[in-house]
Amino acid sequence: MTDSSLPARVPGSLRSYGRRTGLTASNRTALLTAACVAAGIVSPALAEEVKKDAEETVVETPALIIEGTLPAGANPYANPAAPYKVDRSASSKVSQDILDFSKDVTIIPKEAIKDAGATSVKDVIRTQPGITIGTGEGGNALGDRFIIRGFEARGDVLVDGLREPGIVSRETFALEQIEISKGPDSTFAGRGTTGGAINMITKMPQAKDFTKISTGIGTDSYKRVTVDTNQIVGKDFAFRVNGMWHDSNVPGRSDDVDVFDDRWGGAASFEWQPSEKFTLLGDYYHLSTDSMPDYGVPWNANTRTPYLVNGEDKFYGQLTRDFWQTTQDIATVNAQYQFNPNLMWRTQMRYGHATNDYVVGAPEGPNLTLGTVRSSAKQRRQNWDFYGVLSTLAYDFDTGPFSHNLITGVEATFEDSHNPGWSGASNVTIDINNPDNYAWTGIITKNNAPTSSLIRTQAFFMSDTMTITEQWQLFGGVRIDHYSMLQEQSIGGGSPYPETSGDTNTSFVNWHAGITFKPVENGSIYTSFASASNPPGALSDSTSAAYGGNTTAIQSIDAERILSYEVGTKWELFDERLLLTGSIFQIDRTGGLDVIVAGEGTGKKRVRGVDLGVAGNVTDKLSLIGGLSLLDAEVIESPSGPGVMVNTAETSAYIQGKYAVTHAWSVGSTVTYSGKIYGGTYSANRDTGLTIDDWTRVDLMSDYKINKAATLRLNVLNVFDELYYDALYRSGTPFVFVAPGRSAVVTLDYTF
Q: Quick one: which of 457, 676, 460, 631 has its CA closest to 559?
């Protein structure tokens, strides 16, 4: 039961709805008051408070959202009538509705994630057009690796607006939605973000008591349990707890060995509002993973295809040596103060600690004449600490006939990464057709001569959304960053530090300018120009300049510079329940250091493309989310000559749909397509380069509401057991990461 004495808060989506449909203040007030009263969740006195709040409040507080008729635990940012459609970003740096924002943004709500049967962020991103996966389950000297519009984005992942380490694997159990901004995003997200950025939004307390338990069993020894409970305590306090336990093998892997993927995690958050003006939020997140990663299969140079034995892939790791374990612990506090109806201050502080330990066998150097391959030991033992502060001030004001929404703020981060590594993880040569997974007989010990990377950033940013008329909006934003990185490396093993070191200090300014024209209330046409910067050595997950780390060899290299031009349109149809988007863009990247192969230096890249998107409800029964991406990704200049950008699908698309056959029974499907990709080296040749063929994957789902509290769901992933590959490892002896095979999972959701 919801405590009716809780302070009233109006969902941002309802406020946005009122503004976008041109409702008068009195009509908006009546709508909001009626919604709350009809839902039976507020008293008449509280309804009057809501009325007053709706008349006065302009700056919105995303806190203890009154949900009306929304189901317990529903995504507060999604459209209540169309849960696949999200009207607003949860970022404190974005003030506009998605419809009005002069940028291509894709938001995947948890409703779509649940229906797709995705349990990891990698599973979610794998389907997204214009994004490719750079790793298998073992990673590539790191955890999750995403490539957005052809550009490395493993370091461009944020949690609730603050940067997160690129050395970890990420889960979905505590996420409300995943926001993907495409195109240079330095103005909002800071350094890097050449192709875009990914912002993961966590679950926070809501104004309704509930407990949801999900249990799942399936093929490949799949077992999973999640718990989500929200409780109201008194008049001004609420907390929410999420827990997860996951145990499974990776679908489609060799029968000779269990390639397992085990995880457990927990998240706890609270919200305290001692007064109408002040709100304090906090959350803590933990995730542990333990797996036996499969680094894929070698490349067959004779057939120019992945090497398969009798049509089956083999496991080329070493069971006596290989493992992969990670942990994450992240604590965040967020204070909010509303000085007056038009002025809001927010400050977010975070500490995070992560570890990434692994030794894995990569199938490199195949000798097809001798029938052998090297189980090459890739190893890492890394500890990462992060401290971050983000403080923003949002101010709504008028200058004559023009209205402004000004957001300004400062951000400071400190990243400390230590990579002491392992000793004794040697290579072993094995039979390529019948690999011996017990051939390695050595001993692994900890190495206490680490490489350390210290990264500090300080930034100031400001943006203004100026409404000129009901049809025209202007957006302008600027961000100034000061970036410093010190890397120290012990190469002799005798002393902790350093025998070699590299130091980088630089500052850069980036901007974003956009114009939005609304010919009608439910449609917009926009154009935007944006820049980004990425200093060499900016990836703290790496200890090598060839893969984004810092050394003395790259101190003289200027930061890469990125410019983007984009024209797009967005339309809301069917009573604002369906969003259609389209954009045409060009991204130019010059300078910097390419983190592909040692010895490759500065150059120029250009990506031109078209993105289309859909999200929401076509009818009351049919929900859709999906998109199409067409990319022309070229290396224009490089030491190895021109070519195409690697691990980038020039054509990719997906569509996820759900149809309510009856009130209780729904069916759905997801179809994902990826075109041919190139790999192996920095710039690939279309005629002679290494390629992975295009592929199409089909997933099916069905759910049945047993009663008001219980829902049974079936997910069948990769129905046709398509054998496809995520990426080509970028090296002189490449191998390919095998994507998951067919699996089936039955899940029971129960809400108390």
A: 457
Closest Cα to residue 618, out of 668, 662, 670, 658?
Answer: 658
536: left (phi over 0), alpha (psi -120 to 50) or beta: beta
Tokens of 712: 């049974």
- 160 within 8 A of 450, measured Cβ to Cβ: no
How far, CA to CA in Å, does 576 sit from each of 75, 79, 327? 17, 9, 41
Give backbone dihedrals phi and psi of 56, rounded to 5 degrees, phi first. -105, -40
Contact in structure between 377 and 423 (CB atoms under 8 Å): no
3-class DSSP state of 545: helix
pLDDT in tens, 482-493: 988 777 766 554
- Establish how many alpha carbons lie within 13 A of residue 200's alpha carbon, considering only the half-sphere containing its beta carbon: 22
Chain centre distance of CA 442? 38
* b/e code 504-542 from CB counts within 10 Å (16+ = b): bebebebbbbbbbebeeebebbbbbebbbbbbbbbbbbb
Which CATH number describes the domain made up of 202-751? Answer: 2.40.170.20
In whole angstroms, what is the distance from residue 241 CA to residue 227 CA? 8
CA distances in angstroms from 51 to 45, 47, 68, 708, listed in the order given: 10, 6, 15, 32
pLDDT at site 134: 78
CA dist 458 to 79, 414, 455, Å? 36, 9, 10
Give the span between the Cα atoms of 191 and 482, in whole angstroms: 10
| Strand-pair category, 651-660 with 622-637 | antiparallel
The Cα 671–Cα 661 span in angstroms is 20
Looking at 341-471, which runs of residues are DSSP E strands?
Answer: 343-367, 372-399, 402-419, 422-423, 428-431, 445-446, 451-467
Q: What is the pLDDT of residue 680?
A: 64
- What single letter denotes the amino acid at residue 147? I
Instruction: Scan for tokens 């009130």, then name that residue.
Output: 663
Nearest CA to 103 out of 625, 565, 518 is that of 565
Q: Tokens for 264? A: 């457990």
Contact predicate 102/527, CB 8 Å? yes
Cα of first residue to Cα of last residue in the chain, in angstroms, is: 11
**Domain residue ranges of the chain, discontinuous segments joined by +:** 202-751
* 157-159 vs 196-202, strand pairing mode: parallel
Q: Cα Rg for the chain, rounded, in angstroms?
A: 26
Can you state the angle between helices 12-20 and 25-38, rounded to 10 degrees? 140
- The answer to pTM > 0.85 is yes
Residue pLDDT, tens place only, 216-267? 999 999 999 999 999 999 989 999 999 999 999 989 887 778 889 999 999 9
